[in-house]
Amino acid sequence: MTDSNSGQIDHVLIEDRLFPPPAEFTKTAVFSTQEQYETMCNQAAEDSDNFWRGEANEHLHWFEPFKEVCKWNPPHAEWFVGGKTNASYNCLDRNIEAGLGDRIAILWEGEPGDQRTLTYSDLRTEVCKCAEGMKQLGIGAGDVVSIYMPMTPELAIAMLACARIGAVHSVIFAGFSAESIADRNNDAGAKLVITADGLYRRGRVLPLKATVDEALEKSPTVNHCLVLRRVGNEDVSMVEPRDVWWHDVVDPQPGELPAKPMDSEASLFILYTSGSTGKPKGIRHTTAGYNLWAKRTFQWVFDHREDDIYWCTADCGWITGHSYIVYGPLSAGATCLMYEGAPNFPAEDRFWELVEKHKVTILYTAPTAIRAFIKWGDEHVEKHDLSSLRLLGTVGEGINPEAWMWYHKKIGAERCPIVDTWWQTETGGIMMSPLPGITATKPGSCTRPLPGVIPAIVDETGKEVDDQHGGMLCIAKPWPGMLRGIWGDDDRFVQQYWSTVPGKYLTGDNARKDSDGYYWIMGRIDDVINVSGHRLSTIEVESALVSHEAVCEAAVVGRPDALKGQAIAAFVSVRDREPNEELRKELLLHVRKQIGALAQPDDLRFTATLPKTRSGKIMRRLLRDIASGKEIAGDTSTLEDLSVLAKLQEDE
Ligand code: WTA
């Protein structure tokens, strides 16, 4: 962990290029002056109740008004206490009543190229049918429904249908194993699983239902399985009376079902995410606060306008899909492109083909994807007209300045602001990000907090550190979108997030604030390494490696070293060069040159690809184990490709 005595290395992530917002953009932006932002931040900080009362009254529909804005019994917060609202109502009925019934809500394209468009009215009809169907399967308010589906409109429909009747959805990314599904079903006590006969991935069909069948053998709480026919898989086994088809149970329903007024603090969903231990935790979000946070952060950060075609490339199996495909944009009446498949099928230009075809104006994707595009080559981008784009976003990990610059130049044609959005499953929505009309950006910085977010960077004793000095990033005050708990494990919630620094939410990330008040996320607390008394962020070393033209991707971890405390181990994938001794030396020298001798990796291994979770995060825990020669321990159920691990181990 970083502290004020940690040596010089805290400050090396220096990036002094500054990209002011284009004047054209600022003219019509939601935030068009710095004063507007400052005023809102001040109001939200100093008169929080009034600020959020106004926001909630204006931007959500209330069946019954709330009586209290925020009840804060640390670490338990309740927002908009006593009120009743419904997230599906806010996403659908509210827009339809405002005259947007014929606006396209979801513009969908399947991997094989099939297309569908659903207006807000169409979407409400489908949601009502699904909700009615679920009711007939015995699902009501408070029941947990697991959703294990391809990225079809029915995935969003199922989520909103749960919200409509007060059921709690638990979306499980459709790449997880049967074991993981069963664990989640059991932890949450799920009564229904919604799935499909299969999904398309790079032209192949993955048999989702077969995986669910295996999970259901170990899921005693589940009474029914509702199955969408997506791929026409003939081999699906339907176990009666447990399993029913979507087209039998959902399609014949009338398509009108009033949204159930829900308490502000009723659980809206659970989403499982990996913690510092091997066992995923069910992050619990509630109705009103989450809905408001998702909607307002969407409007602020993406500067949403009526004629935008917005595309978030995430999967609904992750929080980004929850907040920025479903609840945020739909509450705001946006038109969302939704794509089912892989970015490189049938070819590496699929994303750019989609942007051109659908005239996408806002694109929100992940640095890992951007790095893949760089690797695949600019020719795939250059084939397409991307002039519809006006705003770009990234999420999920820090973006290295090289990837940022490529995104800026190749995709944004130096015309589109980039919003590097920092947030977490737990925060419900974006916490820090540039506001595209007013924030001058620096490649690699998520810049400043949104109104209502009060960050604090603290040392091990919980004391706030001086600006410039890195430390643990905490959030000092509750915000509407914050997690309300870990499903069924309040002790873990308290222990994990609120015990290290009493009274503050511990994000688990390290951060540094520069002299302009910009925040730089320096990696997870457990990614910080201490080499000969110098504290280093692994991201810094990775960034240095990736800035070498031969490096595609790099992951850096610490391993125990008798002399230095920790030594630096680097895993590197390269392009256009032989991974040989000469290149190894060149890269070590490159890091020395970029950061200094103390940051030079002790080990540098070449690898074809890096082991990643299915959400695209590099599995550092695994790399640390490999680097230190340990037996591989813990949950590796999210490994994208076990052969990667096997390959690395062979090289031991
Ligand atoms: C990391 C994803 C740097 C961070 C929304 C955080 C980032 C974790 C950024 C949460 C960013 C996410 N810059 N790091 N813009 N965005 N992270 O829960 O370490 O999947 O704590 O939520 O991703 O990941 P999660």
UniProtKB/TrEMBL annotation:
Protein name: Acetyl-coenzyme A synthetase
Annotated GO CC locations: cytosol
Post-translational changes noted in the entry: Acetylated. Deacetylation by the SIR2-homolog deacetylase activates the enzyme.
SUPFAM superfamilies per record: Acetyl-CoA synthetase-like (SSF56801)
Pfam families noted in UniProt: ACAS_N (PF16177), AMP-binding (PF00501), AMP-binding_C (PF13193)
Gene name, Swiss-Prot/TrEMBL: acsA
Similarity field: Belongs to the ATP-dependent AMP-binding enzyme family.
GO molecular function: acetate-CoA ligase activity; AMP binding; ATP binding; metal ion binding
EC number of this enzyme: 6.2.1.1
Binding annotation for CoA: R201, R202, G203, R204, T320, N344, S532, R592
